[in-house]
Amino acid sequence: MSDRFKELAEEIKSFSVSNDEQLESYRLRFIGRKNIIGDLFAQMRDVPNEEKKAFGQSVNELKNLAQEKFQELINGLNSREAEEEDHPDLTLPPVDNEFGSIHPLTATRQRFIQIFERIGFNVSSGPEIEDDWHNFTALNFPENHPAREMQDTFFIEKNPDIALRTHTSSVQIRVMENEKPPIRTLSPGRVFRNEAISARAHCVFHQMEGLYIDKNVSFADLKQTLYHFVKEMFTKDTKIRFRPSYFPFTEPSAEIDISCQICHGDGCNICKYTGWVEIGGSGMVDPNVLKNCGIDPEEYSGFAFGMGIERITMLRYGIKDLRLFTENDVRFLKQFNSL
Questions:
Q1: Which residues pair with 281 in a beta bridge?
Q2: Element (H, E) at 304
Q3: H helices present in 186-278, as ranges
Q4: pLDDT means per 10 residues in the chain (339 residues)?
Q5: Is 26 exposed, middle or buried (0-12, 13-18, 19+ CB in 10 A)?
C-alpha cells in the first residue's frame, strides 16, 4: 500500500485548477463525502492488526495533505479572479451609461418652490404622523367633522387621537405656533387619506400648501398670487377662476379652477367635459385659526391655499392616469429624461 499512498500524494501535490469546475472535481475526489481517501479508511478493517497503526497514520497524513491542498487551490483561484478584476479585458465592447431622470412629481415640486421663492416664500416641513390638535382642532375642525372618522383618516391611536396627516396644513399650524408674522411659507409633503385607488385618486399623494400672514393681507393678494403661479406653472394663456366654497380653516373660501390643459377648454373626460379642472382650495385664514396659534386676528390677517402635486403634474404633462406615478414603469419614466 505504500506505493499507493505515494501515488495519491503526488497526484494531490501536482493538482492544479483554473476555474470553479476543476476545483469542484478536486473536492469530489479528495474531500467530498464519498472520496478516495474515505475508501482507504474503509479498508482499515481488512488490514492486519500489527499494521493498522501505520496504515491509519498514512491515511491521516494523506487526508491532511488533501485539505491543505484544497485551501491552497481556493486561495490561488481567488487571487487569479482578483487580478482579472484589476485588469479588465479592454477588448470587450463598452457598456452604455444610461442616465436616470427626475421623477415628474419631483420636477413639479421643484417648479412650485422655484416660483414661490421668487416672491419671498420659504419651505417648511413637519411630521407625517400628527396629533389631533395640529391636524384637526387647531384648524377649526368641529368634533363631528367627517374627516375625523375612520373612513376618511388613517388613525394610529385613539384617545388621544394620533393619525397619518390628511393635509400639510398641520405644518402651517406648527409654523404659526413657533414664528411671528410676517410669515410666507410653502409646506410640501406626503399626505394620507382612506380613498379607493383609481385613475384620479390614491390613498397616498403629495400636497403643496402655502401660507401668508401679515398686516392688511386681503383676498386680492390671494388672487394675484395664484394668478402669478398659474401663469408661471402652465402658460400665459391659462385661464383661472375662483368658485365659492367652504373649508373649516378659511373664511371666505374658494375652489381654484384652471382651463383644462389636456383639451384646452374643449371638453374631455379629465375635465368632465366642462373645460375646467379644479387644482386646489384657498381662502383667508379663519380668525379662530390665528387665535389658536397665538396670533392676534385684529392685527394680522392672511391667506392659505393647497394643491395636489399629482393633479398639477397630470395637467402639466398631459398624464391621464394617477397610478402611473407609483407603478415604476421605466417606459413611462423615460419620457422625462430631459427634466
A1: 255, 306
A2: strand 301-308
A3: 219-233
A4: 76 85 84 78 78 80 85 83 67 75 91 96 96 93 77 84 93 96 96 76 89 96 96 92 94 94 77 88 96 96 96 88 87 79
A5: buried
